[in-house]
Amino acid sequence: MPYDSARLPEYLAAAQEAARAGAAVLESWRGRFVVREKARADLVSEADQASQDVVKAYLLGRFPEHQFVGEEESFGKPIEATRPAAGSAPAWVVDPLDGTANYVHDVPAYCVSIGLVVDGTPVVGVIYDPRLDEMFAAAAGLGATLNGKPMSVSGIATVRDGMIATGFPSNYERQLRNLEVWKAVSAEAQSLRRNGSTALALAYVACGRFDGYWAFDNWAWDVAAGFVMVTEAGGTVTTLDGGEPDPFRHDSLVTNGKLHAELGRLIHNR
């Protein structure tokens, strides 16, 4: 069988090893890569591909029966075209460099994100920040950890007391929708953040640094790891309309659970 839940600890350990290997490539390239532009304000470097190559080789070398969905070869496809077929083998869903613009400008807020998705549901999530040497990890039913120690979402009960995060697409026209929500939430929240890395934002919800996160324009490689991480840390993940979480949809609402309904209302009633 290509997926065996009893092997979750093995899959989780492998994802952590792969994340460290990919991050080592990023750090070796930092400061010497050649930047090119594939869309306005959407910078990418040769380091992306080099990191993904290492991660892919490691994971498929360990688990050749699995699938691989990487950001680099999937860029430009409709999101549904990146969804593995129902009933197919488990898929590693990987962003080899989340927070590319930060990386390009040497802002220390980027990471390698690796999720394992089975029949549309993330079951393993690893997010590794090489600059802070922080390894966020989780697997279904096994809890969530930060550098090996258990982590959990915050206990903040209201948006008024919360630090809320979001993400914006690179396309300006598509940013306008979220700017309206930003305005509405900023009138209520203690503070808002746009850290430039969706994966890290979700990891921060999982460990209690952020209390909530919303977005209209994510991709599966941005959120697959974070979804299982937040859930295992005690938080709540839905679509923006309150539906079941789906990493292969663009929209998501991710919180500590306590302020989930309130944040959802703010987004919809702006």
Compute the number of strand runs.
Answer: 14
Please state the overall shape, judged from the principal axes of the Cα atoms.
Answer: globular
Q: Uncertain regions: pLDDT < 50 for 5+ in a row?
A: none
Q: What would CATH call the architecture of the largest domain?
A: 2-Layer Sandwich
Order of adjacent strands in the largest pleated sheet: 3-4-5-6-7-8-9
User: What proportion strand?
Assistant: 15-25%
Helix content: 25-40%
Give the helix/strand class. Answer: alpha+beta
Looking at CATH, the homologous superfamily of the largest domain is Fructose-1,6-Bisphosphatase, subunit A, domain 1
Whole-Å distance between the termini? 48 Å
Supply Rg.
17 Å
What name is given to the CATH topology of the largest domain? Fructose-1,6-Bisphosphatase, Chain A, domain 1
Q: How many strands, which pairing sense, and closed or not: the largest β-sheet?
A: 7 strands, mixed
Number of helices: 8
| Overall structural domain count | 2
Order of helices and strands: HEEHEHEHEEEEEEHEHEHEEH
Mean pLDDT: 92
CATH class membership of the largest domain: Alpha Beta
